[in-house]
Amino acid sequence: MRLARYIALRIALVVPVLLGVIVLTFLLVRVLPGDPVQAFVGPNTTADDVEAIRQRLGLDAPLWQQFLDYLGGIFVGDFGTSIQTGVPVSTELAFRLAPTLELVFLGVGVAVIAAIVFGIISALRVNSPIDHVSRVTSLVGTAMPEFWLGLILIVIGYQQLGWFPGPSGRIGRGLSPTPITGAEAVDALLTANWPALGSALLYLVLPVLTIAVGVTASLLRSVRSAAIDIRAAAPWSTAQAHGISGRPLVTGYLLRGTVSRIPTLAALVLGNVLGGVVLVEYVFSWQGMGQWLLRGLLYRDYPVVQAGVVIIALVYAVAYLVADVIHAALDPRVRL
What we know:
Blueprint: H1 2-31, H2 47-56, H3 63-74, H4 89-124, H5 129-143, H6 146-160, H7 184-190, H8 194-232, H9 234-241, H10 246-259, H11 262-276, H12 278-283, H13 289-298, H14 302-330
Helix pairs in contact: 1-14, 4-5, 4-8, 4-11, 5-8, 6-8, 7-8, 8-10, 8-11, 11-14, 13-14
């Protein structure tokens, strides 16, 4: 009952957060320098033509009217029409969102597993060669720029070894599966298209590894520190005094206590990766939401920028909600 009440409270808190993001995004994109109408203005464009363009884009209405129209559209899944392409933003978002989420979730998922494994091993062997290597690797991985690491992986994995395909998209030519979600690996799995699945997974390896290295480095230090704290706490000593050792001690005390602290950190990292994935997408020619959102920002495409920021905020909020629920399920003290 306490857990259900806690979940309901967390869900209720998501609503004002999203509403605040919508309001701030709507206002901020309109105070940026530049005018989206200028993208349609030519040397022979008259003032009447400019006004007609402004009316067609809905920019002639008062600011409050524009906001109410935008807010009403969000509730029915209508994010407006792209100023640059004239295509509904929802249509473009459906094509762009899934590949980015596929990349981000796989990268963060691999990083979380790697951080837990190596962090616990390092904590069990403090000041050993393994611990020193783990700490140095974490420091180097944190300081390494993602775009540089991506280029290095392309040189090694594609040019030198030839194990993985080059940065030319998300799947091999002529192997695209029947689109369902927009993420090629998921669509290939759902349609049992095994050649497409193999190709999509190969294209995922290098960009996922690029994301996972930096995220693993960030999480590894936190996991190691949490595991060391647990080993220094009274429950660990008490369990050892009662004769508990080996795997039961590690899985029942160390692993459970460490994992309970990971979800919140993983949610934080997930949001950061989602917001900065554009560099990885550019390096690997991954046509996802990051490139689309950056292009919309450069061309002052208000509907695109607003939709992209709202979606990122929504994923961020949902990730934190799931993390809080998992944390509460693993640690009953959180529900009090």
